[in-house]
Design a protein that fits this description.
alpha+beta; six-stranded mixed sheet; 3 helices; 6 strands; 49% helix; elongated
């Protein structure tokens, strides 16, 4: 049996590691922007500075998205037991395993691939509230809920 706490922690670590990388990129861009603003004035330097500022905004937006995902994961009570699928459920379907939390990619544990998905995703929203034995169809693929925890 898969360990839901280990799966939850894996995705938390993945998000935290991406946040560290993005923060480092943002710091580098800030330094580059400060150095560029010290350069000689002119169109070339103004264009370079504008490009750096755009990149800073893009990286900051990505960092904000990961922060939101981390907050969602932090608030999930993975010990909560329910008679239907809720956010935080680890779901086994006829098509594979899904961790209903945030969109954080996939992991492999004991040779089994587990996909992390948001409860707001098309498949995730259809799985919400389902019970063992119930089926849904997403993109012409039928998913049968075999079990969840």
């Amino acid at each position: 049996m898969l360990n839901k706490a280990a799966i939850h922690n894996y995705f938390l670590q993945q998000i935290a590691s991406k946040m560290v990388m993005l923060q480092s990129n943002l710091d580098d861009l800030t330094i580059a922007s400060q150095n560029e603003s010290k350069s000689t004035a002119g169109d070339k330097h103004e264009t370079a500075l504008a490009m750096l500022q755009i990149e800073q905004v893009n990286v900051q937006n990505q960092l904000d998205e990961f922060e939101l995902s981390k907050n969602i994961l932090d608030r999930l009570d993975i010990t909560l037991v329910n008679d239907s699928i809720i956010p935080g459920s680890l779901i086994k379907t006829n098509k594979g395993y899904f961790y209903l939390s945030v969109a954080a990619g996939k992991m492999v544990e004991d040779g089994i691939t587990i996909f992390s998905m948001s409860a707001k995703s098309p498949l995730g929203s259809k799985l919400l509230g389902k019970k063992v034995g119930e089926k849904i169809v997403q993109n012409n693929v039928e998913y049968a809920v075999e079990r969840f925890e």
